[in-house]
C-alpha cells in the first residue's frame, strides 16, 4: 500500500506488474462490463475535420458546417492539420510515460484525495468515493495561465515541464480557435465570451491505463461526460469509446497526428441543448498500455455559465439552470462519484 497524508492507494501500475488477475474491487457488475461483441466500429464514418481549410475564406463556411453536423450527431470529432507538430504531441506522451515509470515514492509526493488540488496524482476516478475501482493512474494539473501553475508541476522527469508545457500552450491556442468554429456552427458570434475563453481554466488530465489481465471485467474509466467547454485528447493507443444517440458504443480509431475533440457540459448548457456533451469511457487492453492526455477546458474557475440568450426562443425555451462554476463541479465530485450519474443532469430544468 502506498501512502501520502490523507491519501492511500495501490497504483494500477504496481498491480499490473504483480497480479495475474485483477483484484475484486476492480471487477464491475455484469451489466456495466464492456462487451466487445456488441461494439459498433464505425471508423470509416467518424468525422475528421481538416483545419487547414479554415484559412481559406471560400472553405471556412464548409468547415463550420462540418463541425456543426459532427456536434449534432456525436458531440465529437477529430482534427487534422491543427497546427500542433507531431513531435510536440509525442514529446508530451513520452514525458507522461517517464513520469508514470518513476518509483512510487516520487509519484506519491503529489498524491491527494482533495479534488481541488492544482496538481494531484491518483488512481481510479475518485478512489475515496468509488464503490468499484477503475484501472487507471493519473496526474492532473492546472495549465492556464501556465506561468501561474508550471512551478507546481513535477520536476522529475527533468524534461516534464518543458515538454508538457509546450504541448499545453499549443493546445490552449488550438482550443481558442476551435471554440470560434463551434460557436459559429451553433449560431453564435465567434467572439462570444471571448475574454472568459482566453482566461479560462485548462486542466491537463494525464492518464496511464496499464495492460489489464482481464479487460472484459473492468474499465479504465466509467461512462461519463466532461465538465467544461471542449476536451482535446491526445492518445497513444486505441481505447476511447463514445456513445451515440442510439446508445451504441463506438471505438475511436487512432489517426496519425490527429487530436480528438469532445463537447463538454458547459457547452451543452451554453447551446441550450442544441449540442450535447459526449458520453464516453475508456476500455482496456490485455497486451498494451495506453497513455492519454486530456486537456479539459472550461470557463474561469468561479465563472457560471447559462444558456446563450440568442439560442432561447419560443421553439427552444430555456432548458438549463445556470451551470455551476468549475469550482462548484469540483465540490460535486468530491462528495459523489461521477459514475453515479451525469453532472449535467443536475442542471436541466424539469
Automatic annotation (TrEMBL):
UniProt GO molecular function: metal ion binding; oxidoreductase activity, acting on paired donors, with incorporation or reduction of molecular oxygen
InterPro entries named among the record's database cross-references: DIOX_N, IPNS-like_FE2OG_OXY, IPNS-like_sf, Oxoglu/Fe-dep_dioxygenase_dom, Plant_2OG-oxidoreductases
Keywords: Cytoplasm, Iron, Metal-binding, Nucleus, Oxidoreductase
Main subcellular location of this protein, as a coarse class: cytoplasm
This protein's GO CC annotations: cytoplasm; nucleus
Domain Fe2OG dioxygenase per the UniProt entry, residue ranges: 199-300
Subcellular localization: Cytoplasm; Nucleus
Pfam short name (any one): DIOX_N
Role description: Involved in the regulation of shoot development and salicylic acid (SA) homeostasis.
Family: Belongs to the iron/ascorbate-dependent oxidoreductase family.
Protein's UniProt name: Fe2OG dioxygenase domain-containing protein
Natural source organism: Centaurea solstitialis (yellow star-thistle)
